[in-house]
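Much of what follows relies on a compact textual record of a protein's fold. The record below shows the convention in full:
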Amino acid sequence: MTREELFEFFDEQLQIWPLARENYNALRTVKKRKFRAEELTGYVQYNPARAVSSLAKLDSVSLKERKCFLCDKNRPEEQKSIDLLNGRFKLLVNPYPILPYHFTIASNDHTDQKFNGTTGKVLAEELPGMAVFFNGAGAGASAPDHLHFQAVPMESVPLICSLVNNPELKLPYNIVKDPEDLNNDNNPVNGFFWKRDNDSRMNFAGIRRKKHRPEMFYMEPPERRAVSPGALDLAGIVVIPFEEDFEKISDEEIEKIYKEVCY
């Protein structure tokens, strides 16, 4: 699928889906500011619409009680899809975006969120120029009971842009360069696959996790920093749903969060 086809599908979805259209329009005016953690430069984003994901209850009881929003039967009528990998996955517009183009790639089967490097690579092959990324269970996935990836334009991801320019970038966490090393890994993981338009090489950056959320997440204001890190947060787009946390979080606190939740 070409990027032109992908963005055409995106535009069609916003025309018929009021919720998605409102949230993408709101994204144009979200507050942002830069930060630096070791050699990674990114930005903090105040995004109240992401509270549905950042603050999601992910215990087994809560997951069992809610309807899975990635299963066909539970998705809104306006949310259309495109088949990928011979119909094994469906490409969807994410209605709660972090970036101006933000897609979810959901398995047709309701099966656990388990990392598979081969699947990630093949999806990235089908979507050249896009960063296909994975939030593992316990590593930022708001649907740990349904296998899915996500995709955004690769040039929108600070970590990828930085690694393209400097593969030896000094980061607050370790990067795994071979996705096979994370298959069947007992650690929660995040991973990015990307392939540039004029490059035959598939690129990968994986991150092993110690924990899902930092201690600051559970504190009461004013000490609270409601950061629930997924792959994009670790890649330099730190999303915060509360304005007071956005105003107070420092570069040092972001670096501390990275080191607390990652190896």
Summary: The chain has a mean pLDDT of 93. The chain has nine helices and ten strands.
